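Researcher: Structure prediction, please.
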Amino acid sequence: MRLTKSLIAAFDQCPKRLWLEAHKGAPTQESPQAELRKAEGERIGVIARTLRPGGTLVDSHLGQEEALAFTQKLLAATPPAPIFEAAFLHDNTYIRVDILTPLPGGSWYLVEVKSAASLKDHYVRDLATQLYVAKGAGLNIGKASVWHIDSSFILRAIDEYDGLFSEQNDTENFDVIVDGRPQDISTAQHILDADEPDVDVGDHCTSPYDCPFQDYCSSLHPSPPDWPTTLLPAAAGKKAAAALADLGIEDLLQVPIGYFDDPKLHRIHQATVSGIAHHEREAIRKKIAEWRYPLHFLDFETIQFAAPIWLGGKSYAQTPFQFSNHILQEDGALSHHEFLDLSGNDPRRACAEALVEILCAPDVEEGSIVAYFAGFEKQCIKGLALIYDDLRESLMGIHERVVDLLPVVREHYYHRDQRGSWSIKAVLPTVCPELDYADLEVKDGTNAQSAYVQAIDPSTPPQKKSAIGSALKEYCKRDTLAMVKLLLALSE
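Model: Predicted structure follows.
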């Protein structure tokens, strides 16, 4: 069986993943997040090719032998020109190289393109695989690099992406990794020729990628306890769970009461063992007493593009395209306002103007603005203020009014069904189970991003675009209504 770069990457993560992918095929993972990553990765690949004009693409639909033959034809062409997705075979390992560019003297510059904003260890290993196989196949390589996104890049002209990529070719221990590839490939081939390896689940199951076989591997081991110590959150929780594991304790119900010195871990443990929620109602009331009515409950939906699509846009910047705002009066009256831009144009100016219009109206301009994990909302507002001088004072006034509901809940409420999380979607079912997201077409932020990308695609029919808009509005509205209901349920 021939190896590929992706199979070698699977081997680097876990020998069992290699064996399962080769013999059973990876389970289909159609998560919105995976689809977004794939689509953006493909777009970044196309952009990278535009930076090497005059090149020829070895089509991905070609079979391996056809691709190998076509690559050799292009390598022999005079004068030499860039080649995209060039195919090589060596040591029973088949690869495709993102970009090959001819260098003076007959050598080639090999580039591995990545859409992330930093160089990661597994990218270096990918490049090592490419270099080993291409060299072994007879290619004269004068230079090899990983291109990843430069997060400081700003789009100054439409479709002008010079400077989008940061070039990394001076990597510590790279030669050692390349020299070790023959042994890695030999070991991987022996694994494929043997029975399924026995590997315990562990941290490698989610690093550097989520393994698609986690459910399968977990099914081969005894079922974990209903309340495992691993649900303890943050660094303190991980440390405590590791210490308990050393004592042979993996069930939180088996931990003696009073074991945890950390107040948060103690609250989690006590609520889990007793089944009674930890709820400090008076403390919550005291915390929110300083908030000024009418209360605004604000939530943004944003999109991040590795390569910005609008002038003035920055790589991986959070760009708000939607917000929902519920306004709660002191007498309990509730109203709702929203903004959504699916035009495909840069939504930032329209979003900033709508924020000022809605949150700075004379009868509500003094009210506190409630967010859940307020750092995100404040970042969005400040980002808009930095762009638009004429709106800066109003936007920064909005910024200063933002208060955070998350730390109030985290410090004074915990139900064991949260399972170590204080995300609003973990807390809400324990307080307001009637406010579910299951009935919505858009169910989370990643869904919202995928829906937005589809909506602004010029090929999306108007009827479909309208339906997406309705789904996005319902989702964002549910998020801010959830904050209203959560605050009332915990404080009244």
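Model: The longest strand covers residues 93-102.
Researcher: Thanks, that helps.
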